[in-house]
């Protein structure tokens, strides 16, 4: 905080200054073939500075600069660069920094000291053990191309001349592995992972079981016949899909006419079983946070209730453009990124069925284990949706033969109105959304 | 994405058509090195003090600037600076790595100690390190981004916005992004590497939204070159903007793409992503040495149609995937991967090449000093054929014509890959007809490479950003108009 406060003390008359200072420690261990393939450790630090020139009659002008260093002379140069950038921007009456809005930050404990205390040898041993375990888990596992442990400790301080002071810190530990199962010329990859705040929360058994299950059950996969059917998306896939939906619920996308949700508040945009919340104050969420990237308290935002669109996510500027208040939804990609609008902890209200029960209800359909081509086949502006899939057919309510080299397609708009089941198997995953099984009717499977 | 580790993705940046430039020679005086040779020698000595086979210092100084024009305003000007060094120590099969933002001798020595910690159990012993004379990249004609007035950059954005909006009232939103970077790197290792490269990149992109009765559609176009600001002497941003705007407009009347297998004609320069995904990633030696690619043990075999000669070349003037030296100090090179359908070689970095007792092919790259180098493509392209592109369409009774691709992704273990269309049409009775909504196409690499039955003579390149193992690097992709006899189109129309 001292450094952030020092930066904003450089503010001159006729300007506001905001400083975001981040420091991190990372360790990564990659195990391969019984040995440590690589061991990395690093300390990083940087600053992101925004300067708002408020003197002009036509409105303020905004500039941003960042540096991957916390050395005083570099930081000073960064302030000068941000100020210079601001001088060239278009004046805009909507531009402003956040000011304290009276909402108290949630009391979240996101710091597990064990991440920094556990000896590196133990982290190495965990990765080696995972790799060894996976190699002998199933005779069909013929390769373990990666078995990695990683952790991070991140501390952030944010201060502005508009009264913002926010300090936060968090830890994270990750364990992941990929397994390749093979029989004859047929090979399939399965990835397992576990995330936790601290070292002790990681679950290597689960990583191993997932990687083995997801690779071996794909053996013998064939290209399916094209069909129109109900698709049951696995939890991990749903987490990805909710991340895309949340991008279309960004107030910035809405006010700039780049969201298919624009102008639809109060309308039934999804089936009645679909209730969507962004709640970064839930400590279980991977990206839980007391403060947003402008230093306002994060808060619970109800976005869709029983299928009815209630509202959008805003940061300070997009809220001013829309004539409303920030929802505490500013995010940034570290010190090198300026704030924008984004979700952190999107979650669907759980249904009452397990994945097995949903399969049983659906009877005939397709279970999708993983998808590829999200950025080339899903358009959050038009809503067009087409992704490559691998998974297993569902016949008579049970998983049947595996399939690959196929796509499923629809539009996001139609998919939301075709949700037939939401599972009760909620799981917090890395990324901006939790996962749970969801079944969507009337999708086009393309194969032979 | 939470589905980590199974695929590698490529995002389209855009397409451009331009001659290869040669600018005026750079007259800048020789600059001071990022790290003095004597310091490098002492740091490398410390890095190997506890043992090890190889130690390397990779220092980087990157300056970036960017501007975004959105909703008719210069919304954000940004600039950034990142300096630091990554130090690796290789002991047998193990790599120790540490990085620091502190380029002083004390900072580098601390990182060297941390990287060397992995070597503590190794035998090794002190080694005297002597570096050869530093090699630097050849001078290039550059209008360095730092020397260009910000107003000139902003003027480009204004011009692009005007041009896009003038295409029609249905263009309801325009976003223009500009970015440039200058990246100086220095690599020094106990293997006798001592090089410095200076890489300048410039890009401009236009994204348009068109709104009509059927909802909204998007159109995207861009230029991205390993060059300075002089790129805009040859390329009119208005042309890019109009292409993007027309692409969005055209899709307002688009019908859903077909579902199922059809012949596909890919326009020249529409996106060599096909090869980047269908085989490029699968030919990267890190996948090969781990037996995690469908192309393992297939050198010398026919893996594609005899019409396919595939090259990865980091030396092509100005292309987005270019550099003089890779991030391990190896000069960039032209590598033939597939010759007349026969697999000739894989792509190699230092580590993977050492395992096989050969030399790197100049494909060791890293996103920044904070990352370990891995095997990456540079500019990957299919050599042009001899046919007339119009004839390819005329000879296709029914199929899909792809004018522009939007990116792709591959699962290297199975070889299954997708690539998405961002401008496509139906082919009916040998003619290009109705526009189609965006969709992914899916195929299996070795299978699809065997189904290429015609390659035309209208070669074109396209830049992209390739993501692998959490690292993004600029790459180029290229191909002439070609036809695939059948591939699955992932649309919704039966």
Describe what this molecule looks like in 3D.
The complex is a heterodimer of chains A (about 450) and B (about 500). Chain A folds into 2 domains: about 1-215, PmbA/TldD fold (2-Layer Sandwich), CATH 3.30.2290; about 220-450, no CATH class. Chain A is about 20% helix and about 35% strand. Chain A has 11 helices and 18 strands. Chain A has a 6-stranded antiparallel beta sheet. A 5-stranded mixed β-barrel of chain A has the order 7-14-15-16-18. In chain A, strands 10-9-8-13 form a 4-stranded antiparallel beta sheet, with helices on one face. The termini of chain A are far apart. Chain B has about 500 residues and is of the alpha+beta class. Chain B folds into 2 domains: about 10-15 and about 35-250, 2-Layer Sandwich (PmbA/TldD fold); about 260-490, no CATH class. Helix content of chain B is about 20%, strand content about 40%. Chain B has helices at about 35-45, 105-115, 150-165, 230-235, 235-250, 275-280, 285-290, 350-355, 390-395, 445-450; strands spanning about 10, 55-70, 75-90, 95-100, 135, 170-190, 195-210, 215-225, 260-265, 310-315, 335-340, 340-345, 365, 375, 380, 400-410, 415-430, 430-435, 440-445, 450-455, 460-470, 470-480, 480-490. In chain B, strands 2, 3, 4, 5, 6, 7 and 8 form a 7-stranded mixed beta sheet that branches. In chain B, α3 runs parallel beside α5 (about 235-250). At the A-B interface, β2, β3, α2, β4 and β5 of A face β1, β3, β4, α3 and β8 of B.
